[in-house]
Amino acid sequence: MAKKTIEDIQVNGKTVLVRVDFNVPMEDGRITDDNRIRQAIPTLKYLLDQNAKVVCFSHLGRIKSEDDKAKNSLRVVSETLSEQLNQPVTFIPETRGETLENAIKALKTKEILMFENTRFEDIDGKRESKNDPELGRYWASLGDVFVNDAFGTAHRAHASNVGIASNIEVSVAGKLLEKEIDFLGGAIENPKRPFVAILGGAKVSDKIGVIRNLLTIADMILVGGGMSYTFLKAQGFEIGTSLVENDKIELAKSLLDEAQGKIVLPKDYKLTKEFSNEAPYRIARYDQFTPDEMGLDVGTETIEMYKELLSNAQTVVWNGPVGVFEFSNYAEGTKAICEILGNAKDTITIIGGGDSASAAINFGYEQAFTHISTGGGASLEYLEGKDLPGVSCLSDR
Ligand code: ADP
Ligand code: MG
Questions:
Q1: Which ligand is nearest to the CA of 358?
Q2: Which of 392, 390, 397, 395 is nearest to 19 (CA)?
Q3: Beta strand pairing status for 294-298 and 268-272?
Q4: If you measure from the C-alpha of residue 324 to the centroid of ligand 1, how many angstroms do you get, rounded to a whole number?
Q5: Which residues line ligand 1 (CB under 6 A)?
Q6: What pTM value is reported for the model?
Q7: Structural domains of the chain ordered from first start
Q8: Closest listed residue to residue 112, CA positions, set 90, 127, 145, 132
Q9: I need a surface site. Which of 1, 115, 226, 266 has the fewest CB within 10 A?
Q10: Which contacts of 27-32 are long-range, i.e. CB under 8 A and separated by 24 or more positions?
């Protein structure tokens, strides 16, 4: 990549500030998916092996009240991190002040400390999320070098990434950030062809930018899921009570025109009268909806079509499930994509979307993909061709 990485610098004896993305899902104070912690281990281990003194930090959730603070402490995360690193992690329940400063001064090489949720600084004035200059300067003053490994927040200019980088001499990418940029960047800058994109999910409005950008790069775009109905309606078909964005119909029309056949819509759907897993359903072609039916998944013909269209793809980027995969009856299309891509051994397969990633992981295909991005919003913006402030702020090679 064009930016410096941890392997380009000397960290021996230095205090290294590492922004990680430990914004993990929690339920009743327990971590329900530790993927983001696991993904940060290579960077942290590397720095510790190289005799750095490591100070790591992250945000967790959104913080608007004292109650949010109580629910979103990073203490449990630091305990999981300690287990995974197999070494103690000192947790400092502060985001600034003497206790934190002294703990950092007392760090020895090969030791690691983690401080409290960076968004605790948001509670009276959004200092973290609005990149308050004083906060970035302060955090930068706590170390010698900055490492950004938080891809999940790279699309935001916050004090804990851009703020620190603007106030410290050397800022580099961690291994996870590097991997994300290598895979996603490789796919959109210089893809092995044919390059097929699969775009699903709930809303067209979330994905317009991606469709637009990928239309200029991909050889084919398979559009499925909740956003496909807006495209069907744009062509004048009855879509019953399916999800639709009426204010995006004109846009869908012009995208279809621009695409000149590159956009491929499902051939058939699973239709039902109720948004639930219990109601009966039928499979019907895209032009056979009755006014009281909604489509919640793609049908068998579409799955066959996906097999065929994906069979010689060399690069596939997938963003957004093609059905309501949370309901077992409507998970088939999404599972089929996991299976097709999972078995495409010589194809570069990349998932860049929060829900598609969790679908693939939950269905047992985590190891089958070339790369599953840790950043939903960030990967979306990257695929849109946008600049990621958390990456641009790093030192050039
Ligand atoms: P990602 O996080 O992978 O980018 P999105 O957030 O855009 O994906 O969309 C995920 C959601 O889309 C899921 O909750 C899924 O239930 C919903 N979805 C997919 N297909 C349909 C459909 N046909 N009708 C309604 N919702 C759908
Ligand atoms: Mg999502």
A1: 1
A2: 390
A3: antiparallel
A4: 6
A5: 200-202, 206, 225-226, 243, 295-296, 319-321, 323-324, 326, 353-356, 376
A6: 0.90
A7: 6-177 (3.40.50.1260), 191-383 (3.40.50.1260)
A8: 90
A9: 1
A10: 29/71, 29/76, 30/76, 31/76, 31/77, 31/80
